[in-house]
Amino acid sequence: xxxxxxxxxxxxxxxxxxxxxxxxxxxxxxxxxxxxxxxxxxxxxxxxxxxxxxxxxxxxxxxxxxxxxxxxxxxxxxxxxxxxxxxxxxxxxxxxxxxxxxxxxxxxxxxxxxxxxxxxxxxxxxxxxxxxxxxxxxxxxxxxxxxxxxxxxxxxxxxxxxxxxxxxxxxxxxxxxxxxxxxxxxxxxxxxxxxxxxxxxxxxxxxxxxxxxxxxxxxxxxxxxxxxxxxxxxxxxxxxxxxxxxxxxxxxxxxxxxxxxxxxxxxxxxxxxxxxxxxxxxxxxxxxxxxxxxxxxxxxxxxxxxxxxxxxxxxxxxxxxxxxxxxxxxxxxxxxxxxxxxxxxxxxxxxxxxxxxxxxxxxxxxxxxxxxx
Length: 373
Fold this sequence. Notes:
Radius of gyration: 42 Å
Number of strands: 19
Largest sheet: 12 strands, antiparallel
Number of helices: 5
Strand content: 35-45%
Order of helices and strands: HEEEEEHHEEEEHHEEEEEEEEEE
């Protein structure tokens, strides 16, 4: 009888225990997180872009007459100056044409002198009423004709002289010789599409690159025109990084900016210029250019606070002790920091004073949190 009385008591105790456990399970467990309070700050932003190196003057050398190369008077990489002879083309045909043109000029000079003598004689006869005015006019016309023929002969002589001079291919500027794809005996002509060589002046070099429209506005046009910034020396300096990852010792400047945004890329072509006293940089090479720009009143967050889902970025904002996953627009400053930027409507999804988590591991939207130090 005593054992039978214990059964209801035990059952009641078990039900009470399960009830208490259920109440405890319904109480959410708070996730412990480290928090960061956002604030406006200043930072240096690196804008890096791939660039192509060009000599300050790259001149493609083409022949102006046809013929076979008889001499190559330079070697690849050689320094040349203005008017140096680079190649010689067989000049036999052009020298003969020059001599013929020169002889024709002498013939026409003699004809003109004869016409002048005839006119002088006719004038004397006309003055004595021995010949008619018609005969005098014929003599005058012959002088004019002979003078015109002499002019044509002299023009032909000039053409022949130019063609003969073109058999010596010269450079119009100073620089270094590029590749020499043609050899002695090669047949060349003005219609060829490949140059005999390229003379590159590398005393200074251009580094050509493209920047997005927004970056252009931030770097070069913010509240002042490019021309004004350039005249006052207010443009940011440019650092060049070689393909080996080495920082070039000389700082460059912006040389020019295109007035047209590319429809294909949505970017603006920019040309920078660097001194190259040791000829360390060669035309045709590639590199990276970097602008460093100080910006004020920006919100910077660590990379560990950013959650990336496909092409979108999120942070966890702590509001009333609960996590709220908020999408943000951000621009990378370096490998460890991002800068929050306005969206397309100019709105900021987070602001100074907001508290976010310093990490995102195993956190979910709506989790209650306990902030730990």
